[in-house]
Amino acid sequence: MSEKEILRLPAEQLFSKELEALKKADKDEVPAGWKLSPRAVLKFIIGGVEGDTPITAKYIGNDRLVEICIATLLTDRALLLIGEPGTAKSWLSENLAAAIYGDSTQVVQGTAGTSEEQVRYSWNYALLLAEGYSDQAMIKSPVMKAMEQGGIARLEEISRCQSEVQDALISILSEKAIAINELGRQVFARRGFSLIATANTRDKGVNEMSAALKRRFNIVVLQPPADLQTEMDIVSKRVSEIATNYDIKAKPPTNNEIEKVVTVFRELRNGQSLDGKQKIKSPSGVTSTAEAISLLTSAMSLASCFGQGSIQEKDIAAGLAGAIIKDEERDRAVWLEYLENIMKKRGLAWQPLYQSCKDLER
């Protein structure tokens, strides 16, 4: 299968030219198990230029937070990224793993059904019955593979994992080893091994992390974009990248269109108008930056397939209600109130979008 046929390339393949340019120019000391020096990793994440190769920014925000993440991964401490949905936790985790280790695919996706075996090891039961316990019959978890290779494992949504899964991590992060009792031996982590976990603040209380587990992590809190322009820059960049990847044949959204979507999302998320003069009810869901990116990408797709090749207000309106209304009864009332009390009173520039949204409610 060619790269063009793959729906979503891992970061190390998507940005392979950038990583190669950084590696060739890297004059600083490279830590054991790493592909790049810490300074080169930082440039890969925050962007810049290396020779003739532009390095795209993977994370737009406080550069100091990225420095803390990289410095943490130099030590024996694991890294925990905490934030609201849409604060680029997973994206930052993936790109850190790609730059440091060259492989971001050693991932465990945390869910209510994630088992202890998925962070340790399990068995191929057909081989187990035929041969008994053996290395051939053992199925290594992404965490075990990263330990053996001196790489980085990623655990997404750690607070969605049950307590027994979290308890298994305490031993791994403390001892830097996994005991295979059936074979009477242990797998020890090579230098360079680390783990990056993410946790969603909206999942607080689902499976609360114990104090013992939290002590094994350095915790970095990723905040939503601080201001309107920063969020607009993030949305514009990611929409352009996604549209290029999916080969969407439509003009990218204008700055005015991005501003309207981001304004709506920020006001509903923060519970007040941008000028702080009017209180606004917030919906039950999270009107995150990621949702804004998804909405505008879908609007481009609509314009490409069923429009004139450029985004219209009706294309944006088609996604707004779905992005905001997660709880039908409560959120619909919040959305209709926002339309009448905020958007309708914004002036002529907002009237086409307001009318398109109202038309969908009929």
Number of strands: 11
CATH level-four homologous superfamily name of the largest domain:
P-loop containing nucleotide triphosphate hydrolases
Helix content: 40-55%
> How do the strands of the widest beta sheet line up side by side?
4-7-10-3-11
Low-confidence runs: none
Q: What profile does the largest beta sheet have?
A: 5 strands, parallel
Tally of structural domains: 2
CATH top level of the largest domain is Alpha Beta
Oligomer: single chain
How big is the Rg? 23 Å
H/E series: HHHEEHEHEEHEHEHEEEHEHHHHHH
Query: What does the overall shape look like?
Result: globular
Strand content: 5-15%
**What is the distance, rounded to the nearest whole angstrom, between the alpha carbons of the first and last residues?**
46 Å
